[in-house]
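Summary for the steering committee. The consortium agreed at its last meeting that each partner would contribute one worked example illustrating the joint modelling workflow. Our contribution is presented below. We chose a case with several input lines so that the handling of multiple components could be demonstrated. No manual editing was applied between input and output; the record is shown as generated.
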Amino acid sequence: MAFQKPHELHQRRFGRNLGVLLTLIAFAALVFGITVVKIANGSLMEAYDHQPRASQLPITETRP
Amino acid sequence: MTDATAFERTGELTGEARFGDYVQLLKPRVMSLVVFTALVGLLVAPGPVHPFLGFAAILFIALGAGASGALNMWYDADIDRVMRRTARRPVPAGLVEPGEALALGIALSGIAVVMLGLAANWVAAAWLAFTIFFYAVVYTIWLKRLTPQNIVIGGAAGAFPPVIGWAAATGGTSLEAWLMFALIFLWTPPHFWALALFMKEDYHRAGVPMLTVTHGRRATRAHILAYTVVLAVFALGAGFTGLGGPAYWTAAVLLNAWFLLGAARIWRRDEAAAEADGYAVEKRFFRFSLLYLFLHFGALLADAALGGAGLV
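What follows is the complete predicted structure of the assembly.
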């Protein structure tokens, strides 16, 4: 079976798809990197879920 | 019938843009200036920034600037089509549909603002959102076609990146950040009006109210000088704040003396003299203005590096 010669149209679409793929991979890597740095620096990992938690309460008592 | 045979019949590749055409929508040349000035704002600000978070912040500031560029290209496609300088942009050239440019602009604006908020802080994200709104709505949609002061208003949008960079590093803004804003804001009118003096055909054809057309070329020359004088005051004034250092002072004194001299030469000339030498003085002033801004911000960076190394 003979393969058809790729048309310029298909080359353009391939280039566009490849560009989107690489952009998405770069974006995922960036979000992952930001997460790693934030957690390594001690940022909160828990979001508020409408339930009071001891870790979210302000410290009201100090030792003498 | 396949897509390819349909193309063979019509001979058009409308709607089949390359990836690079979408990149062009983001105005990569403007983005490079945004990256540079935002980076300087971020690095000269007091307080350490994690290198990766700083990198991410600059990337999302640039993405936000690119998004506002796409929104600008969507709205201005009609005048871009008329001007020689902009006729080959993706939307007027028929490579990208106007709706695609609008969608890309809105989507990237949202992504850039949210991601800057997560990577840096929400003050910086709010300034980025305001900048996109200011450039796309206040400048492009509202005032660009309404007032000959459009360049001044557009300049304000372009002046925000160092403020956003500073906010990304510190979580707020300060006098130093607003002086960097003033530097770009006041630099933009002389820079673009010098261009308008020797690119008169383009803006005139597009019907954009440029100062050269509405108030005449004599008034434009006077405006260039007036803005340059005020710019020099702010540029030298910045040296007295935390921004000032040996590199900045050296650059500011030399560059502003040169810039003032160039503006005075433009002001003294009449059209006959300018036509006679092919606008040589105006063209030289325009080229030097690019160097002017680059060296001011480069000097700020140099002083920050010297300070970081404990040398000043």
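The two ends of chain A are 87 Å apart (CA to CA). Chain A touches chain B at residues 7-10, 12-13, 15-16, 18-20, 30-31, 33-34, 37-38, 41 (CB under 8 Å).
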